[in-house]
Write a structure and sequence with these properties.
Chain lengths: 743, 264
């Protein structure tokens, strides 16, 4: 046990000074009883800390099992790397990240420093008579710790400045999912906690420095101390100041005793409070990073067949890992800032979902006895519960998961909660209808299975039926590209490209069902299992080398989720395939397009699967001038269609995410084409272009259409015949042979 | 306390369907089967009574049809029905609504429920008489097109509202047990999740033969029915044509068509 977190130093052996004398005094001039008292306080602090830690661990233990224990060592090093580089913290908020870096580094060094002193003073020396904390080692130690303390204070001051003067909306913790007057609307407690944390921490640091200065002044008569004072420059500076304002050695000594107790008790209180306050993020954030799932949200968890209810209904349905994530959240608000639903005023903030559940868990799971089942329900309008409207507002775009510096995984929790809503039928009637339609017809358009490939009729060539003959590439088309008339044009364009490049490809025709990506994200797991297993069955019956798709949603689920159901395939998004074909000269570009374009990264291609480059490379090859929007690549802004939201009408009168995006694009001067590479994006943005009033200013195009524009086709295209369908009426002729008489 | 809910698996026509060679029905390949829409509502009405009652209420669904009907029955079980009964015999093929009513009545006699619910009609055949025929064979009171129901399980009377023409409602007091045919919109049917349907596979579907309910092949089928289908066909349809081109071209085209009609 030692006396302070911020320690300090002096000197290197010169004339006649024994190196072992150059060290810092510990408990000098202390009455033995005072030393004992200090130890008692120290042990109490540790006991309080340990009890709090036990309660936390018991809380996690009340969650369900989770299989994230694999590759522990690897996980550990990844975590250390992330923490050491502060990579996730510096992203999109450099100053806050760097300030945190200073605090983090300061804390770690001071912690290590203090531990070294304890190691020598309380363990090695009394047990083995070993000493090393003197001489050169001591002096360097002093210098490093002095600078660490300085960094800590600078970082803390920036954090205070940020809270007081920058007025960041994300730091006022205002809730969007609650109204003023609701029991848990008020989050001022969080602001108070932030300030209490900052003040106590900075006070510990500052008193540490003053303590060091008083020690120097007090012992200014001892050369082993005073001559080496510059090894603790901040302390030395303060010491000179104290002398300048008239502190005598004795005065400093007296002053020091009082300050010493203040600093010591404050430090120990701080440590005792760790498990009970936001300080615990030191541990929870580290653990959260360590148990991070690289596929979080990209591959959703399965529901075991023997599980009674689907999804999360009670707080105890969450896994220990989920509960840990809840505690890791530092309320930084980055997820909320990135959330498209939040941006358009929907009653959803990913942070509030996490914080609500955390408050709920702390309330329900920290007691000795678990409360009754009914009190564990996390759905509803009560304190800590999550509203159904909130859950249905999510687009499962992963912007939150992607930016969270401490690896909180919001989307799996949201989807698990939705699963429970779906089971209870608590969803929009239109969504319910769509799910029934998908079950009945295998597609979200409610079209006959037979019509899935009717877009091929207008092509000048036949496409192979992969169910009947072997092909190199199997093209999984997806619902939107198959049935939506506008997208069919694009689909035909891609068929022409594949045909021109001489690719041996085929389709599943009627054998293809909705891939299920969005059905799964809605939370209809049973329907997803049905779709996935049917598609896997169809795919397994075909002979092909790899899969290509123009639909990022299908791409994601086939790539990341089908393996869980026994379907492991090599699959590529079309952008990678076409890029290679152009590079290899198999798709010669007959002309260059001089368009000024911007590119919208589809969530499921970009953020989900890191396919940022291929579409951009193609645009460059086509000769387009690409101007990025502010939010691009990993920070791309969802079109609003994800997570099944394409089947749920947006509230009238409020801005849609797609319109918000159009506004962003319209700022680019001279923009001609807003390029997308996802069928749902095409639908969403062509609509948004009209409704947001930018029609005529620029156009929305699928990347395929631009590539198609650069092609020279030799064979004439089959003439397109417009068909007019008249609904058919069936007439049944019935003959009644006997008159009916019933009792 | 028991409620018997009669349900039907109905057929919807797929795109570009074809008529069967004998001309009496649509080719089986082009039919998509699902639970009749009205039956969602009658089952929900039964479930509401079950769930709001302190007393034990058993909801039994019954349907007449071949194996494929199990899928629809499973959906009913997923929504909470306790038991399902399926009556089938090849001889039933071709039965009209009245004959089906006789079969359902026979099941009801065996089960002795306190109430029988059926949909107002089926969406594929639209006879709207199966439920009523069942009541007739049972010699029970009946009410058709029920839009509201107030009933305490086990009570000997129920108050219902029937939908009449022109938005009128008729409030009726009916003696129980009774047969009610339930109208769309009486409640909000619940969603049967696919997981629920899968789990319902564990609940039993009782297969019942004609003999089990005291009937014989002679009582059912096309020959014992009072009406038979002669043929099914698509009437010759009017032709529509989209007129395209500039306004002037469109106008010229219309004039030309009118003149052709007039025989000019
Ligand atoms: S997934 Fe997207 S929409 Fe859902 S909470 Fe996260 S950021 Fe918001
Ligand atoms: S969940 Fe992550 S990103 Fe969101 S507020 Fe918490 S720590 Fe920040």
């Amino acid at each position: 046990m030692n006396n302070s977190i911020v320690s300090n130093a002096s000197e290197v052996s010169a004339s006649g000074i024994n190196a072992s004398d150059i060290t810092r005094i510990l408990f000098e001039n202390f009455h033995p009883n005072a030393v004992h008292l200090f130890y008692v306080i120290g042990y109490i602090a540790i006991a309080v800390f340990l009890y709090g830690t036990y309660v936390q661990i018991r809380k996690y233990h009340r969650g369900q099992a989770d299989g994230s224990w694999g590759e522990l060592l690897h996980r550990f090093f990844d975590m250390v790397k992330t923490m050491a580089t502060h990579r996730t913290l510096v992203r999109r908020d450099k100053s806050a990240g760097r300030a945190h870096g200073l605090i983090f580094l300061g804390f770690v060094l001071l912690f290590v420093g203090t531990s070294i002193i304890t190691l020598e003073y309380d363990i090695l020396q009394p047990l083995f008579g070993l000493k090393f904390w003197y001489g050169h080692f001591y002096l360097w130690f002093s210098l490093v710790l002095d600078l660490a303390g300085l960094g800590l204070i600078v970082g803390l001051i920036y954090m205070m400045y940020r809270r007081k003067w920058l007025k960041l909306p994300k730091l006022d913790y205002k809730r969007v999912d609650r109204q003023a007057g609701d029991a848990d609307f008020d989050r001022s407690q969080y602001r108070r906690e932030d300030w209490a944390f900052l003040w106590s921490f900075i006070l510990i640091a500052i008193t540490g420095f003053i303590l060091e200065a008083t020690r120097l002044v007090w012992l200014s008569g001892r050369p082993v101390v005073w001559d080496y004072r510059m090894w603790s420059p901040v302390g030395a500076l303060l010491a000179h100041l104290m002398q300048a304002i008239g502190f005598s050695a004795d005065g400093a000594g007296t002053f020091r005793t009082g300050l010493w107790w203040f600093h010591g008790v404050l430090s120990l209180t701080f440590i005792a409070f760790i498990p009970y306050s936001k300080i615990k993020h030191i541990f929870t954030a580290a653990a959260s990073l360590m148990f991070k799932d690289p596929l979080a949200g990209r591959r959703l968890p399965r529901v075991p067949d023997d599980q009674k209810t689907a999804g999360y209904k009670s707080i105890t349905d969450l896994t220990w890992k989920n509960l840990l994530h809840l505690d890791a959240c530092t309320k930084c608000g980055r997820c909320q800032e990135a959330c498209p639903a939040n941006a358009v005023g929907a009653p959803l903030s990913p942070r509030d979902v996490i914080l609500s559940l955390r408050e709920f868990a702390n309330h329900a799971l920290s007691a000795k006895e678990l409360p009754k089942e009914a009190e564990l329900d996390i759905h509803g309008k009560g304190v800590g519960q999550v509203f159904m409207e909130t859950l249905w507002s999510c687009r499962t775009c992963l912007a939150c998961v992607e930016i969270c510096p401490v690896a909180v995984e919001h989307v799996p929790i949201i989807v698990q909660m939705r699963r429970n809503l779906v089971e209870a039928g608590e969803m929009e009637p239109l969504l319910e209808k769509t799910l029934q339609t998908i079950h009945k017809t295998g597609n979200s358009f409610g079209e006959s299975k037979r019509k899935r490939a009717s877009w091929t009729k207008e092509l000048a060539f036949e496409i192979k039926d992969a169910r009947k003959e072997a092909v190199d590439m199997l093209w999984f088309v997806g619902d939107y590209a198959s049935f939506d008339p506008r997208n069919q044009k694009v689909t035909q364009g891609f068929a022409r490209l594949m045909h021109k490049a001489g690719i041996d490809f085929g389709l599943l025709f009627e054998g293809e069902l909705n891939a299920g990506n969005d059905v799964r994200r809605v939370g209809e797991e049973g329907l997803y299992e049905f779709l996935a297993t049917s598609n896997i069955q169809s795919l397994d019956d075909c002979d092909f080398k790899s899969i290509v798709t123009t639909d990022p949603h299908s791409y994601n689920t086939i790539r990341n989720e089908y393996p869980d159901f026994g379907g492991t395939y090599e699959i590529q998004h079309y952008s990678t395939v076409v890029k290679k074909l152009i590079e290899d000269g198999r798709l010669p570009l007959a002309k260059k397009l001089n368009y000024k374009v911007t590119f919208h990264d589809p969530c499921h291609l970009g953020r989900f699967n890191k396919g940022y480059d291929a579409p951009r490379d193609i645009l460059k090859m086509l000769g387009c001038e690409l101007v990025e929007m502010g939010r691009n690549k990993d920070n791309s802004f969802c079109c609003g269609a994800g997570g099944g939201r394409i089947w749920i009408p947006d509230p009238v009168g409020s801005e849609k995410p797609s319109q918000n995006r159009m506004k962003e694009a319209a700022v680019i001067e001279g923009l001609q084409v807003f390029v997308v590479s996802c069928p749902k994006d095409l639908t969403m943005f062509e609509d948004a272009l009209k409704t947001s009033g930018y029609e005529g200013q620029f156009i929305v195009r699928e990347l395929i259409e631009l590539i198609d524009e650069c092609m020279e086709y030799v064979a004439p295209e089959k003439e397109v015949v417009e068909e007019i369908l008249i609904s058919q009426v069936v007439i049944q002729d019935v003959v009644v042979t006997e008159s009916i008489s019933l009792t | 306390m028991k409620i018997l809910v009669a349900v039907k698996q109905v057929a919807a026509l797929d795109e570009d369907f074809e008529i069967r060679a004998d001309g009496k029905d649509v080719e089986e390949d082009f039919l998509l089967y699902d639970l009749n829409e009205w039956d969602d509502f009658s089952l929900e009405e039964a479930m509401k009574i079950k769930e709001s009652s302190d007393a034990e209420v058993e909801v039994i669904v019954v349907s007449v049809g071949p194996d494929r009907v199990d899928e629809s029955l499973r959906k009913c079980l997923a929504k909470g029905a306790d038991r399902a009964i399926r009556v089938w015999d090849e001889a039933i093929q071709g039965s009209d609504a009245i004959a089906i009513g006789q079969i359902l009545a026979a099941v009801a006699k065996k089960e002795a429920p306190d109430m029988v619910f059926a949909g107002v009609q089926s969406s594929d055949q639209s006879y709207a008489s199966t439920g009523i025929a069942t009541a007739a064979y049972l010699n029970w009171p009946h009410a058709a097109v029920v839009a509201d129901l107030q009933y305490q399980p086990g009570a000997n009377k129920a108050i219902i509202r029937r939908e009449l023409e022109g938005g009128m409602l008729q409030e009726v007091e009916i003696n129980c047990p009774a047969v009610l045919t339930i109208q769309l919109g009486i409640n909000k049917p619940r969603y049967a999740s696919l997981r629920g349907i899968k789990q319902a596979a564990a609940k039993p579907i009782e297969e019942v033969s004609l003999a089990d309910i005291g009937l014989s092949a002679g009582n059912v089928g096309a020959d014992s029915s009072m009406s038979r289908v002669r043929r099914m066909y698509i009437p010759a349809k009017g032709r529509a044509q989209m007129i395209e081109g500039t306004l002037a071209e469109q106008a010229a085209k219309i004039i030309q068509i009118i003149n052709e009609f007039k025989g000019a």
